[in-house]
Specification:
Length: 421
């Protein structure tokens, strides 16, 4: 049956969904609406792992081959803590320029007959007429915001400030750099996305941000200061602020978006419009593409739209639970960074890799490191750790809440938007 679909938002989620739906039935009438001009995407690179590439290959081999061809890969992770450094060998990771990824997906969508309407903003007041309207318009989704009460949208603001930057320095490993200043620690995550450069995300606590004057510095002053602070890892390469025609807040705090329900009639949320996870776990693009896979499958296999949307939401909510937990603990690890930075670099790096653990905040770091090394050698201890870790964490948290002692408080607030364009 021919269906008319309008995807609002030309990011990875909306474009990939349009590809999958066209592959299922070429007669579907599908249009992707994007408010910005073609090729004007913000950001530099995105990360993903082999499991996503395997799934892309399963759903659309042609776009999967193009994505892999234009990706860089790494296996090492490097941590710089002041003048100390350590390197670890790990799982294979991939990086691709966001501009390149979107160009690949847009070209594939067009080849299948999808209409792409750039510079065509859609607001909550002017939704397109279609059998299915997909809100893939990001964390600040206008379509979702129009019906925020129905969706039960909640936005939690994180504590730390961050800025998304690019650099011509091509990192050969996923690189972490932690620098101590007179106003506290500031740190960066760097990863390559192609021969032209890397993404560099810088983060710090509010006191460090204001103490360094980053809250008052203009763009050039801020970049100059950061280049000096991270000179050792940048090797003389400059930092570049993101450029787009879209107004943005410098040094925001991360917003965790959740929704009580993901659909309203023929309107459904996809990707960041439905959920966000902290950037420190590098899962945003993967989750958006997996949303598209799940929604396309549900629409293909369910006879009615309500059944399809219910299945999509049920499956993705279940899949997101461990990822959201990992993201929450990862953000809290960085918010409590001084707890770990006194350790020898190899121990700190090991606990950086364990930051998703619910047990880690409640065990002295050196003890956790020794236990983790032992558990890594003994299967019996690994099973014990998995079974007792969440229970112990819940018990310790309950005791601390009862006494008013709350380690790792993030200072998060809750905000329910009403009308946000």
């Amino acid at each position: 049956m021919r269906v008319k679909v309008a995807c609002v938002g030309g990011g990875p989620a909306g474009l990939y969904l349009s590809i999958l739906l066209k592959r299922q039935d070429p007669s579907h009438d599908i249009t992707v609406y994007e408010r910005d001009p073609e090729g004007s995407t913000y950001g530099w690179g995105v990360t993903y792992w082999r499991t996503l590439l395997d799934r892309l290959q399963e759903y659309d081999p042609e776009s999967a081959r193009a994505v892999e061809e234009h990706s860089v890969r790494w296996r090492d992770g490097v941590a710089h803590v002041g003048d100390r450094a350590t390197r670890h060998h790990g799982d294979e990771g991939f990086g691709i320029g966001r501009h390149r990824l979107l160009a690949i997906l847009a070209a594939r969508a067009r080849s299948l007959g999808v209409r792409l309407e750039f510079e065509h903003p859609i607001t909550g007041a002017n939704p397109p007429a279609a059998d299915l309207v997909v809100a893939a318009d990001g964390a600040g989704s206008a379509l979702r915001t129009r019906h925020a009460d129905h969706f039960g949208t909640e936005i939690r603001a994180g504590r730390d400030h961050y800025v998304w930057l690019g650099t011509t320095k091509v990192f050969d490993a996923f690189t972490f750099a932690f620098v101590e200043t007179d106003h506290g620690w500031i740190w960066a995550y760097g990863y390559g996305f192609g021969p032209e450069g890397s993404t560099c995300v810088v983060e710090c606590a509010p006191g460090t941000w204001s103490g360094l004057g980053l809250d008052r510095a203009d763009e050039a002053e801020g970049l100059n200061l950061l280049e000096k602070l991270f000179a050792d890892v940048l090797d003389g390469h400059p930092l570049t602020a993101r450029s787009s025609g879209r107004a943005s807040t410098p040094w925001p705090t991360f917003r965790t978006v959740t929704n009580r329900t993901w659909s309203r009639g023929n309107l459904v949320l996809l990707g960041d419009a439905a959920h966000t996870t902290h950037y420190s776990i590098g899962a945003g693009t993967t989750l958006a593409l997996e949303d598209a896979m799940a929604l396309s499958t549900a629409l293909h296999e369910r006879a009615t739209l309500p059944d399809a949307l219910a299945r999509y939401e049920r499956e993705r909510r279940t899949a997101l639970l461990p990822v959201q937990s990992a993201a929450r603990h990862s953000a809290q690890w960085y918010e409590n960074l001084p707890r770990y930075l006194h350790l020898p670099p190899e121990q700190m790096f090991a606990l950086l890799g364990q930051r998703h653990s619910p047990l880690l905040p409640y065990v002295p770091p050196r003890l956790y490191y020794r236990l983790d090394r032992a558990a890594g050698r003994l299967e019996t201890l690994r099973r014990l750790k998995r079974r007792l870790g969440p229970r112990l964490a819940a018990t310790m948290q309950a005791r601390r809440l009862a006494t008013g002692d709350r380690p790792g408080r993030s200072g998060r607030t809750h905000e329910v938007p009403t009308h946000r364009g």
